[in-house]
C-alpha cells in the first residue's frame, strides 16, 4: 500500500536539496507550468510568457500563491507585531544556480539566523533567499499590489524550528515556513546587493555553485519592515505545499537596471546543453484568493503615509 508519507517524504527530501542546499546527484527540476485560467492577468501573461501556457502539473489547493494583493480589501490588524529578523552573516555559505533561480544558502543547523515577530508565533530559521524576475522591467514579480507588477521579487525563506526538526517536515506541514517577500523596482544601484551581483557570473550555468560568505540578507530589506501584508499561502515552486506564512513588504527596494541585467545573464541550462536559455520570467502566475483574508500591519487611513508603490 502506498502511504501518503511514503510519497511526501521523498518529495520533501528533493525539495530540501532544491531549495535549501546543494545535494548530491540528481535534483528535482522545478516545473515551469501553471493553469492560466487561475491567473488574474491571464490575457497579458498568455501572450508574454510561453513558459506558463501548459496546464498545472500539480493538484492545486485552496491556498496557493502568489496572489494579487487588493489594498482596499486587506484588513488592518492592530495586533500584528513588528517583524524581528536576526541574521548572522557568518551563516551564509554559497550561491547555487538550481536551473530556475539562484539560491543564496545559509547554514540552518543552528539558531544563529532567525526570524520571529510579525504574524509569527514561533521562531523560524533562515535557510535561503532567492529572486524571481522578468525579461523586461515591465514584469517579473510573483505577487502584485492592485495588479501592479514589479520587475523582480525577493523571497527570504525560513522554517519553523519550534514545531519541526527538519526542513523536510516543515515544508509539508501547516505553519512550517515563513517567507518574506520584497518587491524590487528600478532606480538607484543597491550597494548591499552589489556583492552578490559581482559573484553571479560564477553561477551562470544550471547546477553551478560558488562559495559565498558573510552576506547579511537584512541589507536587502526595505528601511521600514513594520508595514507589511500577511496571508496563508503556498510555495510557488513544486511541491507547491500550502505551508507558507507570507509576509510581503509594503515598501520596495531599488536596484539598478544594470544589476537586474546580471540576473538576466544567468542561464536555465547547464554548460553541456547545446541550446542555452536565458534565466528570465522565472515566476509562477497568480492563483485565486478563494476568500482568504489578507491582513495588513498598517492602516493608511491612520498613518497618512503615502503608499510606497
Ligand atoms: Zn520564490
Report on the structure:
- Belongs to the alpha-carbonic anhydrase family.
- It holds the Pfam family Carb_anhydrase.
- Its EC number is 4.2.1.1.
- By secondary structure, the chain is α+β, with helices and mostly antiparallel strands.
- The protein has one domain: Carbonic Anhydrase II, CATH 3.10.200.10.
- Helices cover 16% and strands 24% of the residues.
- It contains 6 helices and 15 strands.
- It has helices at residues 4-19, 42-48, 167-170, 191-199, 257-264, 300-303, and strands at residues 68-69, 75-76, 83-86, 92-97, 102-106, 114-117, 124-133, 144-145, 152-160, 177-186, 209-211, 228-233, 244-249, 253-255, 295-296.
- The strands form 2 sheets. Strands 2, 3, 4, 5, 6, 7, 9, 10, 11, 12, 13, 14 and 15 form a 13-stranded mixed sheet that branches.
- A hairpin with a 6-residue loop joins strand 6 and strand 7 (124-133).
- The longest helix is centred in the first third of the chain and has 16 residues, at 4-19.
- The chain is globular, with a radius of gyration of 18 Å.
- The model is unreliable at 1-57 (pLDDT under 50).
- Zinc ion binds at residues 130, 132, 155, 236.
Amino acid at each position: 500500500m502506498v502511504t501518503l508519507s511514503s510519497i511526501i517524504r521523498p518529495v520533501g527530501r528533493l525539495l530540501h536539496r532544491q531549495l535549501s542546499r546543494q545535494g548530491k546527484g540528481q535534483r528535482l527540476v522545478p516545473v515551469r507550468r501553471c493553469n492560466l485560467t487561475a491567473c488574474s492577468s491571464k490575457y497579458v501573461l498568455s501572450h508574454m510568457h510561453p513558459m506558463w501556457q501548459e496546464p498545472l502539473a500539480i493538484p492545486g489547493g485552496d491556498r496557493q500563491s502568489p496572489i494579487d494583493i487588493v489594498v482596499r480589501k486587506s484588513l488592518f490588524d492592530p495586533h500584528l507585531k513588528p517583524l524581528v529578523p536576526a541574521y548572522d552573516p557568518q551563516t551564509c555559505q554559497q550561491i547555487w544556480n538550481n536551473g530556475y533561480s539562484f539560491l543564496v544558502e545559509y547554514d540552518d543547523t543552528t539558531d544563529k539566523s532567525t526570524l520571529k515577530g510579525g504574524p509569527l508565533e514561533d521562531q523560524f530559521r533562515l535557510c535561503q533567499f532567492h529572486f524571481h524576475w522578468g525579461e523586461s522591467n515591465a514584469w517579473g514579480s510573483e505577487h502584485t499590489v492592485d495588479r501592479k507588477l514589479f520587475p523582480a521579487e525577493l523571497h527570504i525563506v525560513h522554517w519553523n524550528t519550534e514545531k519541526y526538526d527538519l526542513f523536510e517536515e516543515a515544508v509539508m506541514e501547516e505553519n512550517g515556513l515563513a517567507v518574506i517577500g520584497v518587491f524590487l523596482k528600478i532606480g538607484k544601484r543597491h550597494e548591499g546587493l552589489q556583492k552578490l551581483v559581482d559573484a553571479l557570473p560564477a553561477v551562470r550555468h544550471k547546477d553551478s555553485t560558488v562559495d559565498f560568505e558573510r552576506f547579511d540578507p537584512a541589507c536587502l530589506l526595505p528601511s521600514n519592515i513594520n508595514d507589511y501584508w500577511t496571508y496563508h499561502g503556498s510555495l510557488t515552486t513544486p511541491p507547491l505545499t500550502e505551508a507558507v506564512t507570507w509576509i510581503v513588504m509594503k515598501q520596495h527596494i531599488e536596484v539598478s537596471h544594470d544589476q537586474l541585467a546580471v540576473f538576466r545573464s544567468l542561464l536555465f541550462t547547464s554548460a553541456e546543453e547545446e541550446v542555452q536559455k536565458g534565466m528570465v520570467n522565472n515566476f509562477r502566475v497568480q492563483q485565486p484568493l478563494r476568500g482568504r483574508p489578507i491582513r495588513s500591519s498598517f492602516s493608511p487611513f491612520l498613518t497618512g503615509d503615502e503608499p510606497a508603490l
